[in-house]
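Researcher: Good morning. I'm working through a list of sequences from a screen, and I'd like to move beyond sequence-only analysis. For each chain I'm collecting a predicted structure so we can compare shapes side by side. This is the next one on the list. No need for commentary yet; just the structure.
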Amino acid sequence: MTTRILVIGAGFAGMWSALGAVRLLEQQGRNDVEVALVAPEPFLHIRPRLYEEHPEGLKAPLQDLFNTAGIRFIAGRVQTIDVVAQEVSIQAGDASAPTTLLSYDRLVLAAGSQLFCPAIPGLREHSFNIDQIDAAVRLEAHLRSLAAQPASQQRNTVVVAGAGFTGLELATQLPARLAAIFGAAPECRVMLIERDNEVGPELGAAPRPTIIEALTAQGISWKVGAGVTEVNEHGVMLENGEWIAANTVIWTAGARASALTEQIPAQRDEYGRLQVERSLKVTGVEAVFATGDCARAATDDEGHCTMMSCQHAMFLGRSAGYNVVADLLGLDPLAYSQPKYVTCLALGPSNAVYSEGWGRQVKLTGSSAARLKQQINTEWIYPPQGSRSDILAAAAPQQDIPDVITE
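Model: Good morning. Structure tokens for this chain:
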């Protein structure tokens, strides 16, 4: 019977988990353990870039990478996880397709997260989002169709619900995109709605002046302290009773871990993430590790925990890959640690703000930060390339974020 490490998910955490597992198995001279990864398709969706134009091209092929590394790719979606029998059911194709069972000796749950859509009347029917590629493509088609609609303030108004990281990056891209679509048409209005009392609440106070300056310079308005209570085809209603007429409402407010986490009998946080040990093993569950957006992990000894972000997912994945093999082979685990925390927020086509530490000390702004953001988006987060040895070397755990030379 095959000894198998099964990784669920081909996102940043899943890809790096599988590579990290192969790396340690090779170092231990073990060729009798299969590393398998199950996902709908062998592509890494570059989700952090979906605020950009032309989202249909924002995915990187993985099949050649998996072949080079010796990872078995299984096309399908996991439907059930049985932690007692140590097997999962996988469905390939649509909902009518049959399911197959696959056993595992160790499991890495790296199924990511999805946009959280609360039970707000009309939200699902009448709003857009950029959570996945198909949703971002749908939004872009809608934006381009606006030019053919009769001119009105309602047509020219775009509401972005949620002034967090995603909402800010999208909102500050929209003025230029809308100007290209409308040409000489009347000026468009982009409006941010935030339930919190500040824009960018999770980004901290230090970057906020730079954010406010960027919003103001682009004519983007914002309303804080009142969330959305209703959405229809003509606009949104806020908690304070204010109605905003808009043909375009984009929801960016929050994410939740994959629903597969609910099948693991363990503690979860308010975002659905599984509580894990420093090894990323799910607390109280044998043979199951969680990583990426499915895991609530301590990043250091100071009480900080991982964010649901590409930055943390990549390093969580490397650590999970190492430790799932260590657990299988009886080796000492490595405690996941990622004390260096940075943020690089795009604020328009040629503007950004880069900060370091949990206190978000601003290090770069303007075009310098924008160049860094472009490097992150087009180089750092993409799959590794080169020979097999190069690829596996990149999967070593305990790496760190590259230093940035401030100007």
